Amino acid sequence: MKTTNFDRYLKEQMKDPGFADRFQRAGEAWDVALQLAALREEAGLSQKELARRLKTSQQHISRLESPGYEGHSLANLRRVAGALDARVRVTFVPEEAKRKKNGRSVAAARGAVRRKQKRDQVS
Asked: What is the pTM assigned to this prediction?
């Protein structure tokens, strides 16, 4: 695949830790927005219909599905997920540089998460 001017520009910008952090956070917000919109569409609902189910406004649903919005609360995400027959799962992923600095192994951290998930499924 051919490298574009944007690819080169982005690679250069990513050298700035502040930019890289903002870029990653924006990607996380996109993920939440896209997942909410996809779930709603899979359920065959418009934003207005979902808002009616949740006793809120269509504008609120639009805001939740906006990639620039970062004010999602866990309680609100659970309400939306419940209305869409889904559940919320939050995953924390250790940052590579900090993990190495603390001497924590990726495998050990993942193993602990998997064991916790299995225990939760059994209960």
From this structure: 0.62
